[in-house]
Amino acid sequence: MDKKPCPLTFQCLEPSVIINFPMEHLHTIYSRIPTFEKYGRLIVEGKLKIQQERLESFLLQNAEQRYRDFMKQYPQLHNRITVSQLCSYLGVERQTLTRIRKKISKLN
């Protein structure tokens, strides 16, 4: 491990409990409890899959497709976040999101 701090940050949209512990503790648990290492690997594989899908969405989909996928995947979330947060997540300007929503509402 290079032990460099991650340059990324995250924002909780709702009250949350965040647990942070040294990587050495995780490695100790892995060495003492082999089954826990298996579950840790499965969790990381799942997170990697989600990250890969998100990256692919930016490479292979346009903004409208990403918006439609967001609405399908998180149908209740758009009511709980700001337009600015949604734009940031989708990687689009506010005007683009407005145009997409207008187009979709005309189709429905």
TrEMBL record:
<dbReference type="InterPro" id="IPR014710">
    <property type="entry name" value="RmlC-like_jellyroll"/>
</dbReference>
<protein>
    <submittedName>
        <fullName>CRP-like cAMP-binding protein</fullName>
    </submittedName>
</protein>
<dbReference type="InterPro" id="IPR018490">
    <property type="entry name" value="cNMP-bd_dom_sf"/>
</dbReference>
